[in-house]
């Protein structure tokens, strides 16, 4: 990895506006992979830690720009190549030279402006990475190398992303499929949601990928050159998908402004920053519109910098962090494949358990709670049992429509209902602790003999977090 990091830095240093603080370095740890640490002196509030030029980021704009180098018909003002500079640019990609025939001229020319603009960022970025990172090097026996190679090289291996549940679900050869049944409901819901996005995105681009994979020989005029099977292509796409998902950073993409999920950029080196649960203390991102000094690199969405937050870093080897958001372990596992032992953002969704308890044959409770918009969405975190649960149990226990309605309107305090619902609430929480403890014991037994403990251990950590929240409320009721 050291060699790859040096190559990445050498590539980044080719841009004048690249900056990296002289006192940071990459450290590899078994728990969180690569991360950025302080090597000497200190870094204080608002200091720039890393600053990456627009042209070195991978996003919807820079990809359209690069595709337009090969596709003369692709012209989007302010995004694609300036055709006045085309001759210069053509030289830089080998046209007219005696270099190898680059299949990208043929392939990228097939992509119409309409097709490209209709793709989401995830679809375009994953299609592009698939072609640049895998297809072109394989077809050309590494004679044609992508501009982005130094960036691709530092991304995680399949092994490193193996604890993401949607991969267990989507990859037909996943060794971890049997773990899905142990996932808590919230993580399972995330897995289902993400798997659906994966399939939709693969449906949107797979036709092109399969077609290109079929026709590569005629483009290259090479017989029996290596191609991928369709299953291999999906597997590569899946890996790319979660590489993107676990490393992208929010940034507004002007041509995709109205598509929330498309507003991201991938930023080399910045993507080494690991997550901390602490919000508003550590490093923070800043996106500046293009600098004039970048005139001949005038592509993309702007310079992306990371600055130091409130937290002073002054201990040698201490890690610099970014907060990815106020995320629970269920979410972190599903999106990024890791969990945090003491995560203050954990919560439990106990909607099914509450509904099972309060539902009656006559649907009386459901009717009343639905009418007042209090049916379902019942959650608990360390600080509180949600108001929705209190309302639901208050009605379930008292069936006093008038008073519960006044409670929801704020005319009656929670204190009136609390003593009435405490026994049923305690019973519910106690039974949940028993259920989760049973699952936890099963998983711990399995983990003792498992060859690969990481994936199981992550699920164990989620259940431990649940039990901690529940016992906290059981021990602190008044
Ligand atoms: C943006 S990357 C950070 C760099 C990454 N560690 C690497 O080796 O390239 C996000 C990934 O880092 C890991 N990660 C980030 N924060 C972590 C944390 N607090 N604990 C464990 N793993 C973490 C997860 O694998 C996650 O998918």
Automatic annotation (TrEMBL):
Q: Which domain of life is it from?
A: Eukaryota
Q: Which GO terms describe its cellular component?
A: ribosome
One example GO MF annotation: protein-lysine N-methyltransferase activity
Report keywords, A-Z: Methyltransferase, Ribonucleoprotein, Ribosomal protein, S-adenosyl-L-methionine, Transferase
Q: Does the keyword Cell cycle apply?
A: no
Question: Which residue intervals define the domain SET in the entry?
Answer: 22-325
PROSITE patterns xref list: SET (PS50280)
Q: Mind telling me which residue stretches traverse the membrane in this protein?
A: none
- Which Gene3D superfamilies does this chain map to? set domain protein methyltransferase, domain 1
Report the protein name in the record: Ribosomal protein lysine methyltransferase
Keyword set includes Ribosomal protein: yes
Q: Which CDD domains match?
A: SET_SETD4
Q: Name one GO biological process term.
A: methylation
């Amino acid at each position: 990895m050291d060699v790859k990091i040096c190559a990445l830095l050498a590539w980044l240093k080719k841009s004048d506006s690249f900056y990296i603080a002289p006192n940071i370095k990459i450290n590899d740890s078994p728990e969180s992979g690569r991360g950025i640490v302080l090597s000497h002196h200190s870094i204080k509030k608002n200091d720039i830690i890393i600053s990456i030029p627009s042209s070195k980021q991978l996003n919807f704009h820079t990809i359209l720009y690069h595709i337009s180098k090969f596709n003369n018909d692709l012209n989007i003002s302010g995004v694609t190549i300036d055709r006045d500079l085309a001759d210069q640019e053509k030289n830089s990609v080998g046209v007219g030279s005696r270099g190898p025939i680059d299949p990208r001229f043929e392939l990228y020319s097939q992509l119409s402006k309409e097709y490209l603009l209709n793709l989401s960022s995830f679809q375009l970025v994953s299609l592009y990475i698939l072609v640049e990172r895998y297809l072109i090097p394989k077809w050309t026996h590494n004679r044609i190398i992508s501009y982005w190679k130094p960036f691709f090289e530092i991304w995680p291996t399949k092994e490193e992303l193996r604890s993401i549940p949607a991969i267990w679900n989507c990859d037909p050869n996943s060794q971890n499929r049997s773990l899905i049944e142990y996932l808590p409901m919230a993580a399972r819901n995330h897995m289902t949601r993400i798997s659906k996005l994966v399939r939709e995105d693969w449906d949107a681009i797979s036709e092109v990928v399969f077609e290109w994979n079929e026709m590569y020989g005629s483009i290259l005029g090479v017989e029996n050159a290596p191609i991928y099977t369709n299953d291999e292509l999906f597997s590569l796409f899946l890996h790319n998908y979660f590489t993107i998902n676990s490393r992208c950073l929010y940034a507004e993409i002007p041509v995709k402004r109205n598509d929330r999920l498309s507003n991201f950029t991938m930023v080399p080196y910045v993507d080494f920053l690991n997550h901390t649960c602490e919000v508003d203390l550590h490093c923070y991102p800043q996106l500046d519109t293009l600098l004039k000094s970048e005139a001949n690199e005038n592509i993309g969405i702007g310079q992306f910098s990371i600055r130091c937050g409130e937290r002073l870093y002054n201990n040698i080897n201490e890690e610099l962090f970014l907060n990815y958001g106020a995320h629970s372990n269920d979410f972190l596992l599903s999106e990024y494949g890791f969990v945090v032992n003491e995560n203050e953002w954990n919560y439990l969704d106990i909607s099914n358990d509450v509904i099972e308890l309060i539902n009656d044959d006559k649907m009386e409770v459901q009717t009343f709670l639905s009418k007042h918009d209090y049916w379902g969405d019942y959650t608990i975190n360390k600080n509180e049992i949600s108001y929705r649960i209190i309302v639901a149990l208050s009605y379930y226990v008292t069936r006093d429509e008038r008073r519960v309605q006044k409670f929801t309107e704020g005319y009656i305090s929670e204190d009136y209902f609390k003593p009435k619902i405490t026994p049923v609430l305690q019973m519910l929480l106690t039974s949940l602790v028993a259920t989760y403890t049973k699952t936890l014991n099963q998983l711990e037994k399995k983990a003792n003999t498992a060859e690969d403990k990481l994936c199981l251990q992550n699920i164990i950590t989620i259940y431990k977090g649940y039990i901690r929240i529940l016992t906290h409320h059981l021990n602190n009721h008044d």
